[in-house]
């Protein structure tokens, strides 16, 4: 079943969306749930590089938390992507990323980066397909070692870097 584009819309997140975003992530294992405060920050401080996807009733069905890396201002770092189970597998997460990249204030973004654990198969597949969606090349390499997370038990993180084609 395909969800019609006119049944969802994308926009910058608003502070009032933080609670729905928090609950969406909470109900989407294996995603790591951040604090509610973090989602408030993403809906205010980082709204220009984040996005929500809503249905016609205003229910949040998807969210991307992103920010520009301060020492690489032309790079969008995607912190977290979450879509409701009812809309997964329909290419909407790629369209959410595209909606961020196509905003006038983001026209100077040349790269997308994200870190992913090796066991997160869906995210690894997603970032490879995102490069294909943008008809771009990508690279990946180890970024955070398991030891970097000590004393916590956490897998290493691989960084994906996608160079966007302009023009």
TrEMBL record:
- InterPro entries assigned: Acyl_CoA_acyltransferase (IPR016181), Ectoine_EctA (IPR012772), GNAT_dom (IPR000182)
Q: What name is this protein filed under?
A: L-2,4-diaminobutyric acid acetyltransferase
Q: Where is the signal peptide?
A: none
Query: Could you tell me the keywords of this UniProt record?
Result: Acyltransferase, Transferase
Sorted alphabetically, which Pfam families does this protein's record hold? Answer: Acetyltransf_1
Q: What is its EC number?
A: 2.3.1.178
Q: Where is the N-acetyltransferase domain?
A: 8-165
One MF term in GO for this entry? diaminobutyrate acetyltransferase activity
GO annotation terms (biological process): ectoine biosynthetic process
Organism lineage reads as: Archaea, Methanobacteriati, Methanobacteriota, Candidatus Methanoliparia, Candidatus Methanoliparales
Pathways per UniProt: Amine and polyamine biosynthesis; ectoine biosynthesis; L-ectoine from L-aspartate 4-semialdehyde: step 2/3
Family indicated by similarity: Belongs to the acetyltransferase family. EctA subfamily.
């Amino acid at each position: 079943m395909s969800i019609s584009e006119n049944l969802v819309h994308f926009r910058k997140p608003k502070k009032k969306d933080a609670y729905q975003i928090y609950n969406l992530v909470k109900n989407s294992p294996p995603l790591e749930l951040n604090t509610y405060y973090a989602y408030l920050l993403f809906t205010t401080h980082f709204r220009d590089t984040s996005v929500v996807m809503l249905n016609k009733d205003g229910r949040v069905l998807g969210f991307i938390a992103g920010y520009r890396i301060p020492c690489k201002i032309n790079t969008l770092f995607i912190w977290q992507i979450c879509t409701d189970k009812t809309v997964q597998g329909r290419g909407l997460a790629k369209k959410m990323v595209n909606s961020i990249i196509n905003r006038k204030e983001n026209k100077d973004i040349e790269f997308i980066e994200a870190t992913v654990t090796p066991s997160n198969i869906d995210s690894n597949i997603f970032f490879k397909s995102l490069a294909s969606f943008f008809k771009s090349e990508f690279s990946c390499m180890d970024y955070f070692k398991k030891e970097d997370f000590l004393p916590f038990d956490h897998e290493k993180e691989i960084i994906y870097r996608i160079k966007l084609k302009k023009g």
